[in-house]
Amino acid sequence: MRTSYLFTSESVSEGHPDKVSDQISDAIVDLFLSKDPEARVACETLCTTQKVVIAGEIRGQGIMDTDGHWAEGVEQEIEQAVRHTVKKIGYEQAGFHWDSFAFENNLHPQSAHIAQGVDAAGNKDEGAGDQGIMFGFACDETPDLMPATLDYSHKILEAMAADRHSGAAPFLEPDAKSQVTLRFQDGVPVEATAIVVSTQHAKGYDAGDKEAELKAYVKGVIERVLPAELLTDNTVYHINPTGSFEIGGPDGDTGLTGRKIIVDTYGGAAPHGGGAFSGKDPTKVDRSAAYAARYLAKNIVAAGLAKRCTIQLAYAIGVSEPLSLYVDTHGTGSVGDDAIELAIGRIEKLGGLTPRGIRTALDLNQPIYQPTAAYGHFGRKPEGKLFPWEKTDLVDELQDALA
Asked: CA-to-CA distance for 68 and 47, rounded, in angstroms?
């Protein structure tokens, strides 16, 4: 394993067109779960200049019947949820305005052939909503037990969004991207070598004193977010390197659900199974099993059993039990990886890592998903019912099992 290297991760803001789509898709998931906790949802969103289109497969009591007829008022609630999401992000521009974009709803009933594989019936337990592999990861590079490059990339954009919403930075518009490159020595981040931030801005902030004001502001945010010891005289800043960035969001680039899966997870520091999260209810193991894998990996690192941990789970559609569980502590474990695998298998709370067991353990059948759809699904603070997979409440049980 290399001990000295450069590594880079990127993030995108809530106003990035792909993230607009993710947030809309998860707003639909939350709306339907609020009506029926057992609702099935697979909602994809496309957004472009003055237009939003949603499509996908759904099922749920009080939402839509099997013939595709909407329950009274639901279509209006869907459009309201979509427009409210865009309004909350802050789009009131001629090319994309929450109140005037054209909206198209193409949701339809879930396939009965898919449903029969997932539904519990007779002696058959609830099956996975699809086949696939899912990964979870944690490391001790930050207090959030996340890769430092991604953690700082997210936090730069979160801080800028907070200032935009509060009015502290009125020259900012919703669309933005960040990228952080760190130099690692003996596996520990020691210096930021390059930081890139591109942000949509108000008219005129691409030249003269206003451009200087914007760049000074962004550099100040970076200095607020990154530990001071990582910023040196050698750190290179690229702030709006292309120049003008007035046209942004869906007016500047089409957005689609599920196109930022590395931003959503570990910034390239860990494998990804390929499945996106947003727009999917928790019977879809693309989402729920990835959350469970992060939950386990984070608790393993929090318990001091390893400095880095990758976990893989695999499922078959219609089958409840996972096909495999794989643990890799990358040579940093205080016990063997096989021993950790056995300890995980003995944690009764997880219900054998079946789809139903995961949903029950993490209480996932709730409208908690829209907040996940920007600034990462992992490394977030568990508050109330939100981000339960970020809790470290398995630490004692894991330590006892491996004592």
From this structure: 24
